[in-house]
Design a protein that fits this description.
- The complex is a heterodimer of chains A (about 375) and B (about 325).
- With about 375 residues, chain A is α+β, with helices and mostly antiparallel strands.
- Chain A folds into three domains: about 5-110, Winged helix-like DNA-binding domain superfamily/Winged helix DNA-binding domain (Arc Repressor Mutant, subunit A, Orthogonal Bundle); about 120-265, no CATH class; about 275-380, Mlu1-box Binding Protein, DNA-binding Domain.
- Chain A has helices at about 5-10, 15-35, 40-55, 55-60, 65-75, 115-130, 150-160, 180-190, 205-210, 215-225, 230-245, 250-260, 260-265, 300-305, 340-355, 365-380; strands spanning about 40, 80-85, 90-95, 100, 110, 275, 275-280, 290-295, 295-300, 325-330, 335-340.
- The longest helix of chain A is centred in the N-terminal third of the chain and has 18 residues, at about 15-35.
- Chain A is flat and about 90 Å long.
- Chain B has about 325 residues and is of the alpha+beta class.
- Chain B has four domains: about 5-120, Alpha-Beta Complex (Conserved hypothetical protein from pyrococcus furiosus pfu- 392566-001, ParB domain); about 120-190, no CATH class; about 195-255, no CATH class; about 260-335, no CATH class.
- Chain B has a four-stranded mixed sheet, sandwiched between helices.
- In chain B, helix 7 (about 155-170) packs across helix 9 (about 185-190).
- The radius of gyration of chain B is 29 Å and the shape is elongated.
- The chains are: A alpha+beta (about 375), B alpha+beta (about 325).
- At the A-B interface, helix 2, helix 3, helix 4, helix 6 and helix 9 of A face strand 1, strand 4, helix 4 and helix 5 of B.
Chain lengths: ~375, ~325
């Protein structure tokens, strides 16, 4: 196992959230006052409010003071803080060794002071912006706002000459909102050109884009993508409108965005369950190819191909059978589609009925596959 | 739809703009129970009887809705289901894996999901959560939380206001020992005071005279509407002077004597809601009796008014007959 893999799988302590809260308080006090450390009482007063949110049950069971003392001790043991004596008082100071935190990509990294609080503040900002239906497009002018203006006419002339340049696709969000590319969309509509929208190459890319899509992110996209043409006062006006809604200054929001940058850019890894399978033969004498789990799940591609159908026909079952995606010892590349045998038996029957009723073609192989499932799994269940 | 998928859970996650992925086969060994994953207090969390029942149902083939975990696979909701699956030596469990859940989001999600299945949280548990969220500077939407928790919006709003009062009191140097006996409704009423000086004075008055919330609201409303701080403080001083006997009695360790007028005030207030025509709308067989009783009431009130004018030094107050009898009056004016 490489060092990186070891870090990624490292288990953080169960009380990590409380340790981060204590660390944040110490960092904040040290930077705000320049004091060498804080006393136990001061730390307690400053951290207890946060702990009441983070660990209400533990505080209820152990008691406020006892819990905080226990966690301070844990931080000392972990080498995050050190306790010293100053005129008979115990002073807690940072050692310079930060606690650890697991990023969304699964990697365990050093914890930047204030990260958790900054994330919560940004959540709150985004919630405020969503609540009022904040639309950044209303604050960022587009050259399409003035169709007779020189800039829009130049764009029209360019697109008339070169068409819609597909190397610069328009980014359309899931709610069909376009933040950057409004003028090109309008020009394309006028010129009856096909618009090229950004296509995500993989599920991972799509999920990453979806994860990043927050009201604040749209503000950043709108400002950054138009930074070249927007005057400073327009950009400031956008930030002011955001600040009006979030009820704090844009500088504070920007500082939190900077602090959480790495976190926000970190893409969660895709979870891949792994099924233990054995292989069954479709017909006596055939090679055993159909992957089946011990709890009666069947790998669809192996079944359908063994039954004589092309693997794309899996899609016909999509509306009738719940799919589960997983890897097995025999699968490579993308996760394979599995389904429970009993769901397949009923799902195939329903699919056949519906297709017949709609006068669509029903491959006879489906019935043979269903019969195989019944023969293989019904006796086991009985 | 997968049998373990839950439209209810999905709609709750979507309403909170939480990103999630449904995973029907999450490895049970990867699920972590970290501190603070639940807002339930001790005795209510994953009760043994419920875990036993779930385990039996699972063995019999029952399919349970997916649990909820964060992207670190730390459990947010579904402790009983998770424990039942472990007891049955299951290797996987269906789960909604939520990404980017902050600690606070996880807590509030846990509250909401807990209310919709299994054993609902007690009011005390919800109250503890609401108070801690307010302490962290969160703005709670009382209506939304009422929908989630089943606690009345007005009760939630009172808890929030009471917590705000406590935080404000702490900022202004009032120790919790000073106001520990005040009810939530009184704390909520006190929080409305605008000026710091008024807040301090009226809090002291509330503690020392044990003023009910309804009366405090009237005093604070009047003080808030005063044109200057001095006038506002005068309102509080006047209210204090009126309750000087209560203050003395309570300071001496006695309960303030219960005034007999507390009972009659409500009835007088009730009578004032009736117009003359309403009072005359009496069935013929009861008219004589009603007339007699109203006459006795009038005699008694005349006597009371005459003495009150003298004993309470109310010469400046206009006589009742000078007023329009249909003028609506609230209880405070009557008293």
């Amino acid at each position: 196992m490489t060092m990186l893999e070891a870090e990624k799988t490292e288990d953080l302590p169960r009380d990590n959230a409380s340790r981060l809260a204590i660390y944040d308080v110490l960092c904040e006090r040290t930077s705000a006052t320049g004091a060498p450390g804080v006393t136990d009482d001061e730390l307690f007063d400053r951290v207890i409010g946060r702990l009441r949110v983070l660990v209400p049950r533990e505080l209820h069971l152990v008691g406020d003071r006892a819990y905080v003392d226990e966690k301070v001790h844990a931080c000392v043991e972990a080498g995050i803080i050190v306790a010293s004596c100053d005129n008979g008082r115990r002073l807690l100071t940072l050692t310079g060794r930060p606690p650890l935190v697991r990023y969304p990509d699964g990697e365990v990294r050093n914890y930047p002071p204030g990260l958790e609080l900054a994330r919560e503040r940004l959540d709150r900002d985004n919630a405020h912006l969503r609540r009022v239906g904040f639309d950044v497009r209303k604050s960022v002018p587009s050259i399409a706002d003035d169709p007779n203006g020189a800039q829009f006419q130049e764009l029209l002339a360019s697109m008339r000459e070169h068409g819609f340049m597909k190397q610069f696709p328009v980014v359309k969000y899931e709610d069909d909102v376009v933040i950057d590319g409004r003028a090109r969309l309008r020009a394309a509509a006028i010129l009856h050109l096909d618009v090229e929208c950004l296509k995500h190459g993989s599920d991972k890319d799509r999920k990453a884009a979806h994860r990043r899509d927050t009201p604040l992110n749209r503000v950043l996209v709108a400002v950054h993508s138009n930074a070249g043409r927007l005057p400073r006062d327009v950009m400031d006006a956008v930030y002011e409108r955001v600040a009006d809604v979030t009820r704090r200054t844009w500088d504070e929001t920007a500082a939190d965005l900077a602090l959480t940058h790495e976190w926000r850019r970190s893409i969660p890894g895709e979870y891949s369950p792994r099924f233990d399978v054995k292989k069954l033969a479709y017909r006596e004498g055939d090679e055993a190819k159909i992957q089946v789990t011990s709890d009666g799940k069947v790998m669809l591609r192996s079944l359908i191909e063994a039954g004589g159908l092309s693997n794309y026909k899996i899609n016909i079952l999509r509306d009738h059978v719940p799919f589960e995606r997983a890897r097995s010892a025999h699968s490579a590349g993308r996760k394979a589609v599995f389904a429970r045998a009993e769901d397949l038996i009923t799902g195939i029957a329903t699919m056949q009925q519906e297709r017949r009723a709609a006068k669509l073609k029903v491959d006879p192989e489906w019935e043979q596959i269903r019969q195989w499932l019944v023969r293989t799994f019904e006796p086991a269940r009985g | 739809m997968h049998p373990s998928a839950s439209a209810q859970t999905e709609s709750k996650l979507a309403a909170r703009h939480v990103r999630f992925a449904f995973e029907p086969n999450l490895d049970i060994n990867q699920i972590r129970d970290v501190e603070g994953n639940q807002v339930r207090l001790s005795e209510h969390r994953a009760p043994k009887a419920m875990v036993d029942r779930y385990a039996e149902q699972m063995k019999a083939g029952a399919i349970f809705p997916a649990i909820v975990v964060n992207d670190r696979h730390e459990i947010v909701d579904g402790n009983s289901r998770w424990m039942a699956a472990q007891r049955n030596k299951r290797e996987t469990i269906a789960a909604y894996v939520c990404s980017d859940l902050s600690a606070l989001q996880a807590r509030s999600l846990s509250v909401e999901l807990n209310q919709s299945h299994g054993l609902s949280m007690t009011d005390e548990e919800i109250r503890a959560f609401v108070r801690s969220a307010v302490e962290e500077g969160q703005v709670l939407d009382a209506k939304a939380y009422s929908r989630m928790t089943g606690v009345k919006a007005s009760t939630l709003a009172r808890w929030v206001a009471a917590k705000h009062f406590e935080m404000r009191a702490a900022r202004d140097g009032i120790t919790i020992d000073h106001f520990k006996d005040l009810a939530d409704s009184v704390r909520a009423a006190l929080h409305v005071a605008k000026l710091r000086a008024v807040f301090l004075q009226v809090t002291t008055l509330a503690v020392e005279a044990r003023v009910p919330a309804a009366q405090l609201k009237a005093i604070i409303t009047e003080a808030n509407a005063a044109p200057s701080e001095a006038d506002a403080l005068a309102v509080v001083a006047r209210a204090r002077a009126l309750r000087s006997e209560d203050v003395k009695a309570i300071a001496a360790g006695f309960k303030s004597a219960r005034r007999k007028s507390i009972g009659s005030a409500l009835h007088i207030g009730g009578l004032l809601r009736f117009e003359v025509d309403d009072l005359l709308d009496v069935s013929p067989d009861k008219q004589v009796e009603m007339f007699t009783r109203m006459s006795r009431l009038r005699q008694r009130l005349d006597g009371a008014l005459t003495r009150a004018r003298v004993e309470w030094n109310l010469d400046d107050v206009a006589r009742p007959r000078d007023r329009d009898l249909s003028e609506p009056r609230d209880l405070m004016q009557v008293r």
